[in-house]
């Protein structure tokens, strides 16, 4: 039996991804009674395709099909999508947040001092990533190692489990911060669905939840929604506190692949290196995937001839900063790429093909696009203020939905900064 919940807490955090985990840890460290609600499970990560599919490939729960043949994936598990991401850390774009009166530099400095946050050592850069890096540099492209949230002393060369959920403790996930929050007295309730935010006298007063098939309510004067770019706007709407449909960005990604004749690999840490063309809104990185995922991409576009070439195939990610548009609805997400988005993808795919050709690849093809980081659906300056508070006092949002402008970057480190900042703000007692 799961532990019983108290009737009231100082704060309730709905969601355990980076934004929620960062906030919960900060509040618990400061002595507040915190309840963390997580819709998914908290079973240890095993690094298997079966567990990964149960967390992120259940239609309508972790996986959503929307227009342009795109698959949008979100992790429904303790730690959210950080459990199944590629552990790549991009610093917050300072200018974007400064335009909204937000300085994330202090939070970033504090997190850099404690997190495993650095490029991989050479011994952990696989032969496929190294080949693509060398080819890109031969074309005078600014390809460099990317910061990874990985503990190199624990990470294993020739391993492919990052995206399945690292079972070795090498990859940092938001579970680390939830564990610390619980050590400081926070309570975690997994497999618990938040149904709506309770409001009394115009203020947030708690959450109605479904747990073990039973409905109940839990009270708190502070509620932080951290359900992600899809989950938080849906919960706001279900609570009568937000619109039914909201636009969003999705950071579309295409995988470009080509076969080489002199490498037998296919098992290495993805996104060891890459480049970011800020002005163009395009990012590229090596993207060596597990064989089942590679085969799915090949089948998706009818390349049956490439299914068994996984160990000799260089894969490259092309990701773009798409325009905010489309709609997140109560049960679905729908977004058609705009013409400017298609041009960015075409530019990135062209660069990727040139790099692969330089690397000696042949039989080059690309996947359909899928969506990596849904967000921007409860934006700073519109859905929340600079302190991440909604128009309902005591109700906050801290996840990718608050990102104020089109994105195109891995959001984990930015969300941790926002969570640390929000936790400190709430502790100072200035919520009104």
From TrEMBL:
The keyword Cell membrane does not apply. Keywords: FAD, Flavoprotein, Oxidoreductase. It holds the Pfam family GMC_oxred_N. PANTHER family: LONG-CHAIN-ALCOHOL OXIDASE. Transmembrane segments: none annotated. Belongs to the GMC oxidoreductase family. GO terms for molecular function: flavin adenine dinucleotide binding; oxidoreductase activity, acting on CH-OH group of donors. It comes from Massilia litorea. InterPro entries: 4Fe4S_Fe-S-bd, FAD/NAD-bd_sf, GMC_OxRdtase_N, GMC_OxRtase_C. Residues 146-176 form the 4Fe-4S ferredoxin-type domain. This is GMC family oxidoreductase.
């Amino acid at each position: 039996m799961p532990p019983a919940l108290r009737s009231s807490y100082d704060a309730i955090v709905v969601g355990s991804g980076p934004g929620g985990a960062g906030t919960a840890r900060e509040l618990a460290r400061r002595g507040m009674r915190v309840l963390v609600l997580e819709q998914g499970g908290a079973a240890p990560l095993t690094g298997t395709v079966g567990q990964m599919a149960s967390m992120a490939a259940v239609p309508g729960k972790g996986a959503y099909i929307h227009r342009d043949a795109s698959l949008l994936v979100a992790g429904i598990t303790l730690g959210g999508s950080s459990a199944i991401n590629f552990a790549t850390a991009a610093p917050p774009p300072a200018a974007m947040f400064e335009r909204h009166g937000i300085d994330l530099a202090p939070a970033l400095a504090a997190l850099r001092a404690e997190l495993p946050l650095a490029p991989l050592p050479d011994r952990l850069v696989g032969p496929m990533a190294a080949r693509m890096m060398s080819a890109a540099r031969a074309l005078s492209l600014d390809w460099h190692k990317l910061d990874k949230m990985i503990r190199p002393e624990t990470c294993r060369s020739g391993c492919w489990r990052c995206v399945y959920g690292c079972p070795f403790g090498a990859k940092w996930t938001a579970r680390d911060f939830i564990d610390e929050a619980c050590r400081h007295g926070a309570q975690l309730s997994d497999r618990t669905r938040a149904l709506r935010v309770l409001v009394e006298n115009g203020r947030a007063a708690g959450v109605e939840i479904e747990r073990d098939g039973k409905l109940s309510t839990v009270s708190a004067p502070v509620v932080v929604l951290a359900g992600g770019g899809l989950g938080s706007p849906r919960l706001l709407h279900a609570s009568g506190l937000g619109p039914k449909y909201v636009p969003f960005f999705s950071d579309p990604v295409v995988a470009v692949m080509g076969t080489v004749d002199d490498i037998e690999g296919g098992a290495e840490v993805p996104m060891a290196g890459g480049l970011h063309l800020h002005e163009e809104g395009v990012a590229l990185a090596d993207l060596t995937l597990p064989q089942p995922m590679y085969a799915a991409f090949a089948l998706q576009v009818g390349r049956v001839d490439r299914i068994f070439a996984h160990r000799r195939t260089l894969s490259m990610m092309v990701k773009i900063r798409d325009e905010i548009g489309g709609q997140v609805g109560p049960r679905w997400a729908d977004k058609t790429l705009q013409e400017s988005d298609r041009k960015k993808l075409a530019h990135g795919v062209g660069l990727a093909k040139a790099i692969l050709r330089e690397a000696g690849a042949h039989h080059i093809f690309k996947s359909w696009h899928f969506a990596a980081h849904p967000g921007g659906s409860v934006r700073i300056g519109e859905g929340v203020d600079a302190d991440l508070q909604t128009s309902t006092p005591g109700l906050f949002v801290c996840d990718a939905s608050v990102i104020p402008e089109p994105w195109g970057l891995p959001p984990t480190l930015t969300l941790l900064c926002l969570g640390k900042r929000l936790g400190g703000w709430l502790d100072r007692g200035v919520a009104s």
